[in-house]
Amino acid sequence: MAELLDLDANVLHSYLSDVTTWVRQLATDIPRRRVLDLGAGTGTGTIALAERFSRADVIAVDVSEEMLTRVQDKALFGGFAERVRTVQADLNVAWPPIEPVDVVWAALSLHEMDDPEQVLKDVFTTINPGGLLAVVEMDSPPRFLPDDIGLGRPGLEARCHDALEQAQASWEPHPDWGPHMERTGFTIVAKRTFPIDVTPPHPASTGHYARAYLRLIRPVLEGRMATDDLATLGTLLADDGPHSLLHRNDLIVRGTRTAWVARRP
């Protein structure tokens, strides 16, 4: 998962820049002294926020000590070590003691919580009046392959996604967080969908990104796809060979992500 998160940030750098710039623009009328990254993962959002909010301290919260070590390494490498602080906490157990903040960023993390509305309540009490909460979610699994990959039957990736939908625990559409945020006391400021369409020539890591994602979902597809499809997928995931994802030049990263920004009155 750590590899996938880092590759996601590398390949989708333009998207991350767009969404953090948008949040920064919405925050022009408030103090920007302290920013909280909720479920920071490997810190791609943390560093992007440190870049966008150039005078703010950024607090990265995650349950994983390993992930937070990666955050600290990135902050040191990027020259943000003095402004980035990490807090290890399991938000399913208890909210950590965090001083009031002006902006909270929760990207691809809120749906991981056992009780998202309780987390939103905790966020509400932590944000200063007038502060902003930004929640970002992936609308559907990313897509990488053309319909005909020159191997096996056309439509492999579509069948992979159908199988994922059948395994409901593996992919469920995330809710419209707007009503949840409003029930907690927030006022919705804006909602925006960001299209993702990374076409050739794309970053060299695109093949690694596609492989990391498909490797992640591969166990879920077992028993839900035909044997020939699983064999084709195995060829794509191989380290070498003309059809390996690492050597294809026809990959296109497609998808959308939706962001909600709300204000604490």
Offer a concise description of the structure.
This protein has 265 residues and is an alpha/beta fold. It is built from 9 helices and 7 strands.
Question: Which structural traits does this protein have?
Answer:
265 residues, seven-stranded mixed beta sheet, globular
What would you say this structure looks like, in words?
The structure is a single chain. By secondary structure, this protein is an alpha/beta fold. The mean pLDDT is 94. α8 packs antiparallel against α9. The protein has helices at 2-11, 13-26, 44-52, 65-78, 116-126, 156-166, 177-184, 206-221, 227-237, and strands at residues 34-38, 57-62, 84-88, 101-107, 127-138, 187-198, 253-263. The chain has a seven-stranded mixed β-sheet. β4 (101-107), α5 (116-126) and β5 form a beta-alpha-beta unit. 38% of the residues are buried. Helices cover 39% and strands 22% of the residues. The protein is globular.
